[in-house]
Predict the structure.
Amino acid sequence: MVILRPEETGLKQLLERILDKGMTIDTSVRIDLGSLDFLGAKARIILASFKTAEKVGLDFPEGTNLNTPAWQNLTTNQPCPVCGMESRSKDLKEEGCPWCGWNYRPDEG
Amino acid sequence: MDGTTDQMRGKTMESTTLTPEKDSSGLADAIDRILDKGLVINADITIDVGGVELLGIKIRAALASFETAAKYGLEFPFGTNLETAAWKEAMIEKEECPQCGKRVDREELLNIACPWCGWESAKAKKRKKVGVRAEVQ
């Protein structure tokens, strides 16, 4: 049986993309008065989902406990290409998706 | 303020929660998604006047639902009581049922079935099949 994901709306898809890929905004503004360097501003902003942030090594707020099981799951789990549900990468590769039964070697199991 | 209006409000709320909200709008969906996945906002901003650095701002922010925040060990404001039943419930790993959309215990959903709609995962079906075969033998 194949479980299809519910149809995704434009906004949702867009957000998903931004969260998954991460977004950086890097700007610098200079204002001169006459020939005098008057005002300058620099901003580096980064936006990402927890998963992406952990992958690319972003700083988390002080006091965040980075040893919870959820953090470990981020590195060991992978989404199924058919149903999108997450399971351990090893299981997904060797036994197929435990959620929808997808298996890239269909004759086995 | 007014008891009767409060009562009426309660009633209307009750009736709206009873109707299934399958056709959630795009915005609600998007917010749901953000809160669920969590959002990290890091920013470094510096402002200088006449070549002299005047002000520096460093922001490390994380935005998430209570459940996600608890899962990822974010710190809660001082004085939050983390011993309540709701927090213990939040620490159990949950997954959305692909059929009915209810959030249920991941292990139960994967190994047995959805307690709400009875949906069974491939793993649970396989297990059942193996179990029946063993019984026949």
Residues 67-109 of chain A form one domain. The first strand of chain A starts at residue 23 and ends at 33. Chain A has a mean pLDDT of 82.
